[in-house]
Amino acid sequence: MPVRRPVRTALTVAAVALLAATASACGDAGELQSAGPTQTADSPAKLWPDLRPASSPAYPYAVATRETVKGLTVPGDDIRRIDPVDIVAAELRAHPADYGSKGAYHATAERMKDCRAGGDRARCPLLKPYYRDLTGDGRPDLTLGFRLYPTNQTAVRVYTVEGRHLVQVLADNDAITGVELAGRALVERSPADISGYEYRTTWEWDPGQRAMVFSRDEYLHIGGGRARHRTPSPSPSPAASAS
Asked: pLDDT averaged over the chain?
């Protein structure tokens, strides 16, 4: 990137100056000194070349979701003009098995009433909405989050507009500690089961599928705590497998 060129130039100048000083010092000693033999580079070793390819994926994983939100239109194709509370309410209506009285997230539906005027905002599960162009069409898209009570999970949704229709292009539920937007990618951070580590899942806009597509799952050390040994599970999670 152009903005990084001055930094790289400064580093190059410093490196050249350091080499020149080193050469001068060596010259003062009478001759250049050998640093010893260079370690031989090992080429990648392909293991089990006759291994039969798997006929199906190890674990099912929804790499992309895309759904037109029913019952809502976007005035003037401006996603900022539609109330995020109405968007979540539309999802609650569309998925009664999840948000109904016997659903896993039934308390979310109850608390959504407090997101309306006159409600207790402290009980509202809806998080602050963010607007940024993730699809590359020059218009802002909506990144929405809301808590999934009574669990400790958070729903992450991304919406775009197509012909006054609101289209959901990402839907993911997870125990999330943070979310970041980087270019046209969304990165979710989730706690890992080992102290000092976390999962980072990246979703990127795919013009072919017209959706945010799962692209990367990382298992990273973030400092603090000590790694402890554990017995591998016979059925690891898709995220752990991808890592």
From this structure: 81
Mean pLDDT confidence for 141-169: 97
Q: What pLDDT does 235 receive?
A: 42
137's tokens: 């069409």
* The two structure tokens encoding residue 66: 């895309």
Compute the distance between CA of residue 3 and CA of residue 143 in angstroms, rounded to an integer. 28
- Distance CA(163)–CA(225), nearest Å, equals 50
pLDDT of 68 higher than 90: yes
